[in-house]
Amino acid sequence: MPGYSRADLLAAGRRAFPGWPDSVLAQAPQLPFQHEACRVWNVPDRTRVQRVTTVSKVPALVLSGTFDAKTGARWGAYAARTLYRSTTVLIPGIGHWVVPQSPCAASVLTSFLTRPTAPDTRCVAGLTPKPFTIVPARENS
User: Fold this and answer.
1) How many CB atoms lie within 10 A of CB 120?
2) E strand or H helix at 107, and its extent?
3) Which of helix, strand or coil describes residue 135?
4) Which of 4, 13, 58, 120 is the most core-located residue (most Cβ within 10 A)?
5) What is the largest CA-CA distance in the chain?
């Protein structure tokens, strides 16, 4: 949300979810505290710097979880598009904290640290998301 005012967020929220209360629509998704935190810490506007595309030939590893609701799995490949020696890996069924949640992701990261231009990603091929289970709510006894 860098570079967007509270009014910008509210307008976008109203377009996406007409009829929802302004108290909900005015907040950046999953970051309702952001404007207040930046104000309290006196964080300068870094929009211009944050929007400069990083271009690099340094080996990079971009790990994304397919269930990442915070940054979204598709953004990994987008972030890596100008990291010319990058390896992009999607870990099925994992959320935002990929490495701590997935032994395979941890293994890929370890192999990247050993061989930055050729990490071992073979473990990813056998991964599938775990099935969802819906458990009925229990009544209070």
Assistant:
1) 13
2) helix 103-114
3) coil
4) 13
5) 61
Q: What is the pLDDT of residue 141?
A: 56
Pair 61, 98: CB distance under 8 Å: no
Q: Strand pairing of 60-65 and 86-91?
A: parallel
Q: Where are the beta strands (DSSP E) in the chain?
A: 60-65, 86-91
What string of DSSP letters covers 56-69?
B-S-EEEEEETT-S
Q: Judge whether 108 and 120 are in contact, CB under 8 Å.
A: yes
> Which residue shows structure tokens 């207040």?
36
**8 A C-beta contact, residue 51 and residue 43:** no
Q: Contact 86/117 with Cβ under 8 angstroms?
A: no
Measured CA to CA in angstroms, residue 135 lies from 55, 130, 132, 138, 139 at distances of 47, 15, 10, 9, 12
Residue positions counted in the chain: 141
pLDDT digits (tens, 9 = 90+) for 103-132: 999 999 999 999 999 999 999 999 999 887
